[in-house]
Design goal:
With about 575 residues, this protein is α/β, with parallel strands linked by helices. Among the domains are: about 40 residues; about 180 residues, P-loop containing nucleotide triphosphate hydrolases (Rossmann fold). Helices cover about 30% and strands about 10% of the residues. The protein is built from 15 helices and eleven strands. The protein has a seven-stranded mixed beta sheet, with helices on both faces. A two-stranded parallel sheet has the order 8-9. The chain has a two-stranded antiparallel sheet with strand order 10-11. The longest helix has about 30 residues. One of its GO terms (molecular function) is GTP binding. Pfam families: GN3L_Grn1, MMR_HSR1. It is found in: Nucleus. InterPro entries: Gnl3_N_dom, GTP-bd, GTP-bd_ortho_bundle_sf, P-loop_NTPase, TRAFAC_YlqF/YawG_RiboMat.
Amino acid sequence: MPRIRKKTSKRGTTHQREKLKHKVSQGRKKAKKQVRKAQAAGTTHKKSKKDPGIPNNFPYKDQILAEVAESRRQAAEEKQQRKAEKRAALTGLDVEDVEDSQKNVNIDENQNDGQGFDGIMSIRPAPPAPSIKKPVEPSTSEPAIPITQGPASLREVLQKADVLLHVVDARDPAAGLSEALFKEARGKDIILLVNKIDCVPRESLASWLSYLRLTYPALPFRVAEAFLPSRPNLPPASKKIPVKLDDALGSDAVWQQLSKAKKSGEELVVALTGVTNSGKSAVINSLARADLLPIYNLNSTISTKGPHTTTTASELVLEFPDKKGVNVRLIDTPGLEYVRAEDVEEQEKEMARARDILLRSRGRIDRLKDPLFAVEHIVSRADTQDLMLAYSLPAFSKGDPTSFLAGMARASGLIKKRGVLDHAGAARIVLRDWSIGKFARYTMPPGSPTTSSSANNEGILAMLKSRKELRKAEDVKLVRLQPGEAEKREVLLDDVWVIDEEVGENEVDEDAGNEEPTGDEDGDGAEQGSDSENSEEENVDDEDEEEVPELLPPPKRKRTVSFAVVPGKGKRQRRFGKNVTQ
């Protein structure tokens, strides 16, 4: 039998070559798409190199393994010591007593030394002690401030209070005002507390203080460092950093204003009101110089427990710093809830809903089913030049959200198949920047009031950054917005506050804004309800859930095949497109 000749050529067919090229191209496209998604979500992971280990022919291998075992033993001893100190601090015992009670817990030095280890890259330093944000020493004999349950409704709070301390956000103070609330509190002392002054330029705060003082006393305020919101996804600190509880800006002016309001020898009752997430609980903690009330934390929005906001009224009694024995009772209240509007057009409902969601900024607003309407509200109020500079976008028409989102999608690499731009993904980037404070915004009051009335706050204003200094910050996008309007809707006064369950990461309350539950054109069933404190966002789906695909151009028309008889011949031949004579 003759030998079969071996194939000498590696040349394949054109189909095989094109098939291989197509696979390589699709693999590269998929890898680039995954990188773009990771960059947009901010979850880039670096692949750690594999530990090569110590070669067996290395002459000092035994010595290195012995050093590694010794370092492990020392790390274990230090960890045990830290546990003992922490347990002693919690129980109030001495460290020596805890060590005596744990003498039976020893570390065997010869146990598993060097076993299962063949490298030096796996050496890790001892884990740092958990950072405690409250630097409260248990040895200090300061009595704890008791917190009691407050009134059941807003009307009862107003009837009990002598002073109304209304907290507004310095980024848009007018939007936090309520005409119905001030009308109900007529006859009481009303003080406006402009909180979060570290988020706005110096010029904006000075103008707003002058404008607000035309009607009510207005005081600037910034909570203590211990109660400032922390940025999510920050690396943990390598060592414990002491956090201050007594460095609030404007607390002295608040106490002075409250002392002026106290006229009789009875206890002064002060009620703190404002919209959700305006910082009422953090203000009370800063005045008390202690961590008493739970506050909203940005990091809690990405945890399983969800963000925390006040749901019921709480009372606590503090003492005036300069008057011993003179007390003031502070009442912390939930966010204001407004009456649902019935006879309002759909467009006005949509605008009110977007305004409420952005003003409260509670939860993962970047996970809305339809984030476009919220970004449309931002673009309609934002300065076009500031948006272009903040996100390095090409020029677009003023108030045109479609052009803005198209530029954002191109700049972020959010391009789908066939060149379709992902407007929803670009809108989620803007909403996330808004939620975490990276989208720094400020407003200016209507008109140009004089700044003479803010001369007594020159010390606080000097500590703030100017507009030019904030623009130079690397992680801040400073954008000027048109000022909001004072809320004219009626406030729910007689509704009883109840304790609601905490909202998880992928859950928000069904009611959001000021709309009735309606179905949209796509049938996604987004529900819209009242403006309660726990109703600022609509239902959201998981991150991996696909959105409704956009309409693509129609496919190309296939070429038709016709069969015709050639004249003069009886045979039928295949012709493509039209008959061809031979």
